[in-house]
Write a structure and sequence with these properties.
The structure is a homodimer. The first copy, chain A, contains 7 helices and 11 strands. Chain A is α+β, with helices and mostly antiparallel strands. Chain A folds into 2 domains: 141 residues, Sandwich (Jelly Rolls); 83 residues, Arc Repressor Mutant, subunit A, CATH 1.10.10.10. In chain A, β10 and β11 form a beta hairpin. The structure holds a DNA duplex.
Chain lengths: 237, 237
DNA sequence: CGGAAAGTTGAATGAGCTCAAATGGCGTGG
DNA sequence: CCACGCCATTTGAGCTCATTCAACTTTCCG
């Protein structure tokens, strides 16, 4: 639970929100957190929901997506363990959810009533500080994604996605995994990168034929040559 | 100045950070803010700067940009009056600046030493709350941009950019200007939208020939048919 | 097995890029 | 006041990369 004792075991990349609190501060809050699980495909937040959920992802992967007027799905971004969902603002200050949030894998998270979240942040400035820092980081991440989407070739988009996935599946020391489990289908990768299924498949095929990666089966990807992959990710039209 | 009396006159779209403070709270802080002006083209922040600047934009327009390894400039985003620059984290918690920030027009802003900013936020939770809210808003904005860059046609990118500029140059009631002063060159628009100069020019030409917009001269744009422009902005491949 | 979904591969089309040249605006200097 | 040069913008022609449409193969589960 976010504020409970078990929160300290949360799989979070940066410092957990609750790490700033002492045990005695945690105690009265512990009852309010709700441990929750999502199955693959389950929707956590639907665009337009008046009171967005506040939650901290413990394990699993979710997508933030948007359906265009034409019915085309666009994946705005991914949410990994340690990421925070929702805005801790109440009442008329709370903007309605702008995007759908759907589990791509089985997900466990700890969810909080928004009012409790609001109160806890007001009572514990260190928590608010942590949340602010995390939000700044997210802003930087998203800005980084923009440059990739705006100008990069299909090759660079795919290579960059593989690298980022390897990085986020690695341990906390920044080590990247050399065999990663792709949590997305080709179609979802396409929606994430602004490409088509066929193009994603072709680019992965190219990387495989070049010996940069291997496809050991299933949705696993073996990264044989991280440097070459990084180089491919830099390519710009 | 950000915390001074004159701060209340800041041209800010959302609530100013300091609006949460009483006059007596403002008093001891007022001396620390530095009113600063930038000429067009002047660089406020350079990528890699160890201690990023904290500032609040009062008037003018800046670009957040990144130079790719190939030397190609990519404009990550724009900063309009009311936007906040920098992260209020000190010491080793402060990440180095990731992007360049350059004035596109004459700019006036109020700048603060980072230590003062940090302290003020710690002392005044309402300020931190405002900053958090503003950052969430910025995150939502940037996520919105992603979908445009990932899949939208050149036509939609250009139309969307014109609409957003009209919107941000409008008054606080959400009214959009029908004659806007484009603060960017064709080249800068191209860098912002991930297109080439020629394509931007062609798309603007198309919109003009369709009667949707007019070019009264200079870098002004008259929006004759806002609805048609909005429709063009929706177009997706 | 067998059917459905996911993924791969191929050929043709088209949007946007590149290269190149023409046009227009604007300040400088004669 | 006009000629000139510089820069931004516009316009044109050919090309490239990603998409589209379509067929085929593989994987996943019942």
């Amino acid at each position: 639970m976010l504020f409970g004792k078990s929160c300290r075991q949360c799989v979070v990349r940066d410092a957990a929100l609750c790490a700033a609190l002492t045990d005695s501060q945690l105690e009265p809050l512990a009852r309010c957190g709700v441990q929750r699980s999502l199955a693959r495909g389950e929707t956590l937040v639907r665009a337009g929901d008046p009171a967005p959920i506040c939650a901290n992802i413990q394990s699993g992967l979710l997508k933030i997506s948007q359906i265009s007027p034409a019915g085309q799905e666009m994946i705005i971004g991914l949410l990994w363990p340690g990421d925070f969902i929702g805005t801790p603002f109440m009442g008329d200050a709370a903007p309605p959810a702008q995007h759908d949030i759907v589990a791509l894998t089985p997900v466990s998270l700890c969810q909080f009533p928004q009012a409790i979240m609001e109160r806890a942040l007001a009572d514990h400035p260190m928590m608010e500080r942590q949340l602010l820092r995390r939000t700044f980081t997210a802003l930087g991440d998203v800005r980084g994604r923009i440059s990739r989407l705006a100008r990069a070739t299909a090759q660079a988009r795919v290579a960059g996605f593989l690298l980022e996935t390897a990085h986020r599946q690695g341990d906390d020391d920044g080590e990247t995994m050399l065999i990663i489990e792709l949590p997305l289908s080709r179609g979802e990768i396409a929606d994430l990168l602004g490409l088509t299924i066929e193009t994603v498949s072709r680019q992965i095929g190219k990387l495989k034929h070049a010996g940069v990666i291997g496809l050991p089966g299933g949705r696993r990807i073996a990264i044989h040559d991280p440097d070459a992959l990084a180089e491919a990710a830099e390519a710009v039209i």
